[in-house]
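LOG
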Amino acid sequence: MPVLADIPRLDRRLELAARRVVEGLHAGRHRSPSLGPSCEFADHRPYLPGDDLRSVDWKVAARRDRLMVRRQHEERDLPLCLLLDTSASMDWGTPSKRAWAELAVAALAVHALLQGDRVRLGAGAAGEVRWFDQLAGPAGPGEACRRLESLAWGGPGDPAALLAAAGARLRRRALVVLASDLLCEPAGLAPALGALAARGHEVAVLHILHPDEAALPADWGLCRLDDPEGREPARLVDAAAAKAGYDAAMDAHRGACAAACAGAGADRCEAPCQLDQAAVLGRWLHRRARG
């Protein structure tokens, strides 16, 4: 359970900003498709009777020999949608991927709320998605913790269903961040990511990996490998003998997930859960800020 005092605080200088236009409801710092008075130039249009003369671009007017008005993007708050995979495979490991993801999602929620943005949380597995009302204001961080505490964990993961549910529910363009171990078929992930992008949303994926999952520990010796989601039967293996084949298969899966994200224009951040959330998320936000 994430406790507000334990949530990693991200560097306030690193803004969680959209790279694409978004459609917030309230004034903020993110570029909107709406046109209005702000600091970011959009385009020019011919002057019309009644336009404010202060909006005339006199240099352009001199070149074109006609009055031209500057149009600018109105800045809005960032609608942030956080999607959390609550499948059984996420509740595995020491520390568990679940514990890492809860704190990471809470950290992003608090960071966005402190920026003055609004946050929506969706969570689920096995095709069932739970949605919460939008968070905003000073009460938002504590409420985010309570909502994460209330989640049920278990069942097979279905990140594509989570993404599809977000696409069906979100009415405005948003930044959608999925936190998942992506233990699914990458071929099913690509269309779900692409559908969100086609609707104008920006999508980012926190690909959460446990070190014992990323590379099979050879010192496990003769061991039993279980699928926590029950899709595959348990197997008795010699870890040292199986390591090369397992590691190659996992590397191929990670590569396929990266390709699915890249093909849909989604920003994928690999998140090893043995590392501190603030360090992983800080590097990710810094990379986004550099473009």
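LOG (cont.) second protein
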Amino acid sequence: MNVEEKKENSAERSRAVPVLWMIIPCYNEEKVLPITCEMFLDQLNSMIRAGHVDDRSRILFVNDGSSDSTWEIIQALSRRDAHFIGISQSRNRGHQNAVLAGLMEAREYCDITISIDCDGQDDISAMDRMVEEYRKGSEIVYGVRSSRKTDTWFKRATAEGFYKLLHCMGAEVVFNHADYRLVSKRVLDEFSNYQEVNLFLRGLFPMVGFKSSSVYYERNERLAGDSHYPLGKMLALAFDGITSLSIRPIRLITTLGFAVAFFSIIGVIWSVVCYFLGNTVNGWASMICIMCFLGGMQLIGLGVIGEYVGKTYLEVKHRPRYIISERTGSIYCRDHCENEKKKSYSQEREAD
């Protein structure tokens, strides 16, 4: 058996029984984490017993600079069960950066990852269907809400409007999909080449390509604690998504500018004709309205362009998107021991 055949056989085995890492971002989740951690562990053990995933699978909690006891809870969980591991960011950097940190941490050890929020709202049992889609050949499996009947009218209208707006603005997103998704190591390796500082993961992964599919599920109520995504953060995320993935707003401003200029020329011609016909009347109100309209359009245009300039400014500085300050769990202890052994062995060789 040659090297290529061995690689193909190894890939087939990993797809049949993949090593799964669940990526769970946590920010001030001390109320809900003790509840949902048992749900995640039960789901993982169930998948291991069924032979759907390997026993080397892990549940990776990413502490996003929490100010409560979230990190202490994660440390205690990792001491209790080897399937729990955790990393802690040096400070709060936001949900998208926390998910990215977990994905990049996991890709060296796993065949697939499933990112899911800590609050227990996403249907955990949908993971079985996600893994099944992966075994059928999908490299990305999107968890998509089948309905929004648990949302208020305002929440449903704003959320669906959010996805429609992103689509109209040229951002390629999956409707009613947030950050509950399965991603293979193959995709993560390619995704690591994307170096954007302004992250909008649900719009970036469709850009990577590869075969994808969707799994539909019902979303539940939050089990405990408060939501960390109020309306303000949702609007900020929507604006980041549009400006990070599309230049259509600038093109719309350009088109609107030409339209305003066209009607302005018509207005100038009309005013000159009226002047020579003697039909002019000194109109203070109309002049103020025109000035306010044009001034407002100019400020809006400058604001949108300034947003793109600001994002370009952040990108060119190329600051790190996340910094991991601490790690906990059996896999990191093992790696540390192996590194210490290698270091000791190298020192003995040098001494000889």
